[in-house]
TrEMBL record:
GO terms for cellular component: cytoplasm. It comes from the Eukaryota. Belongs to the AB hydrolase superfamily. AB hydrolase 2 family. Residues 216-246 have a biased composition (Acidic residues). Residues 80-199, 276-335 form the Phospholipase/carboxylesterase/thioesterase domain. Transmembrane segments: none annotated. Residues 204-247 are annotated as: Disordered. This is Phospholipase/carboxylesterase/thioesterase domain-containing protein. Pfam families: Abhydrolase_2 (PF02230). It comes from Diatrype stigma. GO terms for molecular function: carboxylic ester hydrolase activity; palmitoyl-(protein) hydrolase activity.
Length: 342
């Protein structure tokens, strides 16, 4: 295993603007949501609009606990903020980076990447520097917010829109702290999904012509951008422990090595897979013309194969944004999984 250098977090954090923080409507402070914007936006622009968006008042059948249960009358929330009146909302802003797809113009983005035409595997190397820094920054932000809320990580939710989802999912897969209450993504994708699926197949010994971890036959599997050296295994070990690495841990270890993210001392990915205990909701519009729903489906399948408890939902006629229906489903999902006091 190669030696991964430590990032200078304090200096790096200066590149990220101070997050927009919206305090709870009602005291005491009991929960915290950290929600990431998409490329080209910022916490200041994204946060207030999201919190003031009216949400649908009828619950999706997917989140009704029991059809025979006696309904309990509760106030009907009208916005995300009023649905969780004791929640603090934190909207971080991405650092300004040169965007290759915009002819290297500067914009707020969590990481650089090439065009997202499915399978979105071209020029994946562009993602590495930004994803590495953003993952470290988000881990630092999570630790800070966990310390400030009673109950710790079980009262913290991480979410994101578009590239914000991609950054949040990457940070979750490499998170080594206590499990969060829940996580969610809207109209986004999973970076390196095809490469992660490749690691999962390698871990299960799947051969050519078999079914991939994302449900795509190997014959039609999207090019992962490898160099064709089939004999090379970055996780090969000289001892008998090589056979003990389960496919999900193998995939996450590959991601950690690819991004050069430092592991906490004494941990390995087989013992620190905290993401497996974090329930995840993913929503995507069927008419999304910026991030194809095919990439959202691929993310859901890949995460499911890794062992993440992901709930996938599609929204007919919705483009590259959220909707009242999606926000209501997120509210219901978090409530059902976190079981917070109201």
């Amino acid at each position: 295993m190669k030696n991964i250098p430590l990032l200078d977090i304090d200096n790096m954090a200066a590149d990220y603007p101070e997050p927009l923080v919206i305090e709870p409507l009602s005291q005491p402070h009991r929960q915290t949501f950290i929600i990431l914007h998409g490329r080209g936006s910022s916490g200041e622009k994204f946060g207030p609009v999201l919190l003031n968006t009216p949400i649908t008042t009828t619950a999706s059948e997917d989140f009704v606990p029991s059809k025979t249960a006696t309904p309990t009358p509760t106030p009907t929330p009208t916005t995300l903020a009023s649905a969780f009146p004791h929640a603090r909302f934190v909207f971080p802003s991405a650092a300004r980076r040169r965007a290759t797809v915009y002819r290297r113009a500067y914009t707020h983005q969590w990481f650089d990447n090439w065009k997202l035409d499915p399978p979105a595997t071209a020029r994946e190397e562009l993602q590495q520097p930004g994803l590495r820094e953003t993952t470290a920054y988000l881990h630092q932000l999570l630790r800070r917010e966990i310390e400030q809320v009673s109950g710790g990580a079980r009262n913290v939710v991480l979410g994101g829109l578009s590239q914000g989802q991609a950054a949040a999912l990457t940070a979750l897969l490499l998170w080594e702290g206590d499990p969060l209450a829940a996580a969610f993504g809207m109209c986004g994708w999973l970076p390196y999904a095809a490469r992660l699926a490749e690691q999962l197949r390698a871990g299960t010994g799947a051969g050519a012509g078999g079914s991939s971890a994302t449900g795509v036959d190997d014959e039609t599997q999207l090019d992962s951008g490898g160099d064709g050296d089939d004999d090379f295994d970055p996780f090969e070990r000289d001892d008998e422990t090589a056979d003990e690495i389960d496919p999900p841990s193998r995939a996450v270890s590959w991601l950690r090595e690819e991004l050069e993210v430092h592991r906490q001392e004494g941990n390995d990915d087989s013992r620190s897979a905290k993401f497996l205990d974090i329930p995840l909701f993913l929503g995507h519009g069927t008419e999304d013309n910026k991030v194809s729903i095919l990439l959202g489906r691929e993310a859901s399948r890949c995460l499911d194969s890794i062992g993440v408890r992901a709930r996938w939902r599609e929204y007919q006629g919705l483009g590259h944004w959220y909707s009242g229906d999606m926000l209501q489903d997120i509210v219901n999902f978090v409530r059902s999984e976190a079981k917070w006091e109201t």
